[in-house]
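Support request, please re-run this one:
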Amino acid sequence: MKVIKSIKGFKDIKSSNFGLSENQLREKAHALIPGGAHTYSRGDDQFPENAPALVVKGKGCYIWGSNGEKYLDYGMGLRTVTIGYATPEIDNAAIAEIRKGTNLTKSSLTELDAAEKVLKLFKGMDMVKFAKNGSTVTTAAVKLARAYTDRKYILRCIDHPFFSYDDWFIGDTVVKKGIPEEISSLTINFKFNDIESVKQAFRNYPNQIACVIMEPTTHIQPENGFLKEVADITHKNGAVFISDEISCTFRTGIFTTLDQYGVTPDLVTVGKGMANGYPLTALVGKKEIMNLGGIKKEGEERVFLISTTYGGELISLGAIQAVIDYYKKHDVLNYLWSYNKKFISGINKISSDIGIEDKFYIEGFPGRMNYVAKDNSGKSSFEFRTLFHQEMVKNKILIPWIVNSYAHGDKELKMTFDAVTNSLEVYKKALKAGLGHYLKGKPQKPVFRQFN
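Re-run finished. Output below.
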């Protein structure tokens, strides 16, 4: 395995771990950090064996691995980087806030400025609470809904992959070890684009459901006015409608539920792309609900909503303001969609030309995409998905999922098409000769699985 000693472009990076092999880096990471990473989606089990053990830095739409190689990136910081790594306009705004003191004793003017700027984007919403993780704000939204309705059940979309690391959600998945059944039993489910499953849940738990929480869309969009019907049924039954836009933020839309589908929720959770990789999320909502977490109404029972030491740190709040300005100046959202439209049509054409269009294809729409990898029986396959990613890594592209940025241009699109052509040629051979001839190492695994 390659060992880093001296690599062009790394001279500004100092680490006692330079000089370790890739295997040594992996082993050391797992020895010091449960799972080897602070996000399960970054773990070794989510990547092929030939991916770099660690990454060292990013610039634009490229990252540099601990193996010394440079890769075009379609992970973009787990969807958080929408403009590009180390974008000067955003970094300079963050650095300006660092020089103010980073984290002050009382609420800052920067917080107020950021709140005003964010709320201008979310029409119909009145108040915002900043935090650092999506889980923090989704759990806060659920808490507010329970306090507002004085009910305990949560109705969540079973088809949407992740809402929180907190007990109310994790206890409703297969990875529920450590969560009391009393908590797990309070979360119930409905199916996306199945309005009858929503109605049935309210019939089964009359006057007991505090909220409905869902993403407005994944790569599968709502059909036949589904979102509006969900909102109407939710309100008819006295519950709170929560739109989880953590993954949609500044990619599918700005205020996706309203912008794309014409529906106004009661509470919105946003994050990921809103600060171009700087750690920031937000709970945005209507005043009559959000104000339950306030302190102005004397004598009213309090809701201890979100109280985080770093929720108001200046750096990320400076970054979000610069991101909003950058989006307006460069029409970033339309650019992302335009690139993705070409991405979808181009890759599906390559797959069709090679003759495996029923085994590998891009599904979704320019706002959210997914690549589908199937075996000879036509079933979705983690093994073939890993093979495709393995071959893309050989061609110097990391593509655990499909997320672009404003830094992805025509050069990167051509590089991607060339790599996909090479990778799908190998994919086709593996369909004929078997994976054993081509796949190296273990296949990727789903994050939500009961056993390692």
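The mean pLDDT is 95. The CA atoms of residues 114 and 186 lie 35 Å apart.
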